[in-house]
Structure formats: structure tokens, C-alpha cells
Specification:
Elements: H1 15-46
Organism: Gordonia humi
Protein name: Transposase-like protein
């Protein structure tokens, strides 16, 4: 049996827009997560319990 590549998936109408929106949302959420992590580290360093 020959090693054949998988067929390419075709995007339906609106799928490309939805994919782009999902990628943009992911980037936004990752940025927010990173900011919150940095803030948590900053404030954790300031506590003197």
C-alpha cells in the first residue's frame, strides 16, 4: 500500500471568515492570559505575609 497524502479539505462559504475570527480570538485570549500571568507574578512578589 503506497503512502498517499490525505486529500486537502475545502473551506465552505463563511468557514474562512469563521476560522480567521477564531484565530483572532485565540490571539487576543493568549495575550490577555500572558498579561494576567505577568500581573500575578508582579503582585505575588509584593506580598509580605
Amino acid at each position: 500500500m503506497a503512502n498517499t497524502p490525505a486529500p486537502a479539505l475545502e473551506l465552505r462559504d463563511g468557514d474562512a471568515d469563521e476560522l480567521a475570527a477564531s484565530k483572532a480570538e485565540r490571539t487576543k485570549l493568549e495575550t490577555e492570559r500572558d498579561i494576567l500571568r505577568q500581573a500575578a507574578k508582579y503582585f505575588a512578589g509584593e506580598t509580605n505575609w
